[in-house]
Amino acid sequence: MLRQRGLTVTGLIMVCIVLVLCALVVFRVVPVYIEYFTIQKHLRGIAEDPTMKTARRADIVRAWYARATVDNITSMRAEDIAMERQGDGWLLSADYSATVPLAGNVNLCFDFHPSSKR
Question: Phi, psi at residue 104, to the nearest 5°?
Answer without folding.
Answer: 65, -125
